[in-house]
């Protein structure tokens, strides 16, 4: 009885081994998970590149708008921060990001932060440049001389991929832009 069942299985195997119907479907089914992972990973990767470019524009735009002012008040900064949502669209900057603007001057031979303001979003993070009244940490080679002032715009944004794949993990983006004020010193915030 066992021998007969074994022969029957062996005959079925020989018949199936030479049957090529459905082979393409099996090969497609084997490749489908890899193709889907590449497709979904490509979508997240393209979103990551797009949000990174947007955050670079936010940093440059906010720093440039501040540097164009003759004097600056907190209400002026509030109006400038309002532009962030339009530059960062379609990404939710309000809940996933923050802009930190700093004014930096040379005081007694040390780079000091005159004032600092944060806005545009609710993300809680500290400035990599420093705190108001403290020493400024600037990139190598970037200096302020004499009575010049430097405006630094820092942008933080928490990127979350649409699909939970190891190809593109969640990441916090950080972009900076530095400008020299054009019309005033901007050492003080009114």
Could you please describe the fold and organization of this structure?
The chain has five helices and four strands. It has a four-stranded antiparallel beta sheet with strand order 2-1-3-4. It is rod-shaped and about 100 Å long. The chain is of the alpha+beta class and 190 residues long. The protein has helices at residues 2-18, 23-67, 74-82, 84-88, 93-96, and strands at residues 97-107, 110-119, 149-159, 171-179. The chain has one domain. It starts with a helix and ends in an 11-residue tail after the last strand.
Keywords:
single chain, 190 residues, alpha+beta, four-stranded antiparallel beta sheet, 5 helices, 42% helix
Oligomer: single chain
Radius of gyration: 29 Å
Instruction: State the total count of DSSP E strands.
Output: 4
What is the percent of helical residues? 40-55%
Question: What amount of the residues lies in strands?
Answer: 15-25%
State the order of secondary-structure elements, H for helix, E for strand.
Answer: HHHHHEEEE
Find the structural class using helix and strand composition. Answer: alpha+beta
Tell me about the largest β-sheet: 4 strands, antiparallel
Count up the domains. Answer: 1
Question: What's this model, at a glance?
Answer:
The chain is α+β, with helices and mostly antiparallel strands and 190 residues long.
Secondary-structure map:
Layout: H1 2-18, H2 23-67, H3 74-82, H4 84-88, H5 93-96, E1 97-107, E2 110-119, E3 149-159, E4 171-179
């Amino acid at each position: 009885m066992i021998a007969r069942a074994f022969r029957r299985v062996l005959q079925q195997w020989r018949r199936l081994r030479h049957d090529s119907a459905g082979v393409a479907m099996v090969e497609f089914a084997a490749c489908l998970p890899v193709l889907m992972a590449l497709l979904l990973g490509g979508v997240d990767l393209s979103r990551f590149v797009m949000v990174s470019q947007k955050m670079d524009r936010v940093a440059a735009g906010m720093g440039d708008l501040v540097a164009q002012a003759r004097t600056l008040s907190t209400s002026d900064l509030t109006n400038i921060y309002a532009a962030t949502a339009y530059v960062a669209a379609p990404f939710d900057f309000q809940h996933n990001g923050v802009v930190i603007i700093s004014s930096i001057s040379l005081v007694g031979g040390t780079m000091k932060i005159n004032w600092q303001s944060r806005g545009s979003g609710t993300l809680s993070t500290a400035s990599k440049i420093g705190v108001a009244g403290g020493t400024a940490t600037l990139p190598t080679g970037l200096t302020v001389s004499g009575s010049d002032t430097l405006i630094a715009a820092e942008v933080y944004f928490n990127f979350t991929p649409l699909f939970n794949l190891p190809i593109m993990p969640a990441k916090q983006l950080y972009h900076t832009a530095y400008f020299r004020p054009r019309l005033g010193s901007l050492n003080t915030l009114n």
